[in-house]
Design a protein that fits this description.
Length: 240
């Protein structure tokens, strides 16, 4: 007995329809896994700081931060949250206890904040404070990049602070007295123009068009060179 085989003209549309349904299903799964609090609001980026990235004030702030983080590391560091979790306002479990302790250790949550298990308004504000401080969107929800950032070990953060402090202490004497210069932050794709010790301008670069390593300069200015690895050098207009 013979069966009638559908022609290709009939099979192809069915395959496309099935593929489309599968794709829609996958999209639905991906969308539903994103916390509601993270997609219902859009936050404006913070205003750029007018404080020069390389300045005596920045150096002093880093010295203070290094001192704080050295004490945290000496005490054993901070607790680590489980991976692939989401914590949002209203949650009440042992992971919130870990989060609260983590935020208290870096001063984002006041040490006298009451409550252990509740993800209350105090924790929401503490999470937002942490997110703003590290350059993340202040959603008040812990998942994804915020979770990964919180879980970076204290020793790693201390090494980063110490490297930045050494870099600023190297560049500061070379830039002191220069009337104009430009600084590039290769990690965040930002440029900062400095004139007479102030930052009248700051601009962002497109990650697509930004080079892997770029030298930035201005007429009769000192130059700051920054690479994705975080190394920085500076030289005066005469090249010294």
């Amino acid at each position: 007995m013979f069966r009638r085989v559908p022609s290709k003209s009939k099979v192809q549309p069915v395959r496309r329809a099935v593929s489309g349904l599968i794709a829609l299903g996958l999209v639905a799964i991906l969308v539903t896994n994103v916390p509601v609090h993270a997609v219902t609001h859009r936050y404006m980026p913070p205003e750029p700081s007018r404080l020069p990235w390389i300045s005596a004030q920045t150096e002093q702030a880093l010295v203070s931060a290094v001192d704080v983080y050295q004490r945290i590391v000496a005490a054993g560091g901070w607790p680590k949250l489980p991976g692939h979790i989401t914590l949002r306002p209203g949650d009440n479990d042992e992971n919130v206890v870990i989060l609260r302790k983590r935020l208290k250790m870096t001063g984002d949550l006041p040490a006298n904040a009451r409550g252990d298990y509740a993800f209350d308004e105090n924790v929401v504000e503490a999470v937002k404070r942490y997110q703003r401080r590290v350059g993340l969107e202040p959603t008040g929800v812990v998942y994804g990049i915020t979770l990964r950032s919180l879980n970076v070990p204290a020793k790693t953060r201390l090494r980063q602070l110490q490297a930045n402090l050494a870099r600023i202490q190297e560049l500061l004497p070379k830039l002191r007295g220069a009337p104009k210069y430009i600084i590039m932050n290769a990690t965040s794709f930002e440029l900062q123009g400095i004139q007479n010790g102030r930052s009248p301008s700051q601009a962002g670069l497109s990650p697509v068009s930004a080079p892997r390593r770029r030298r930035t300069s201005a007429p009769t200015s000192a130059q700051s060179i920054s690479s994705p690895t975080g190394t920085c050098r500076a030289r005066s207009p005469s090249g010294r």
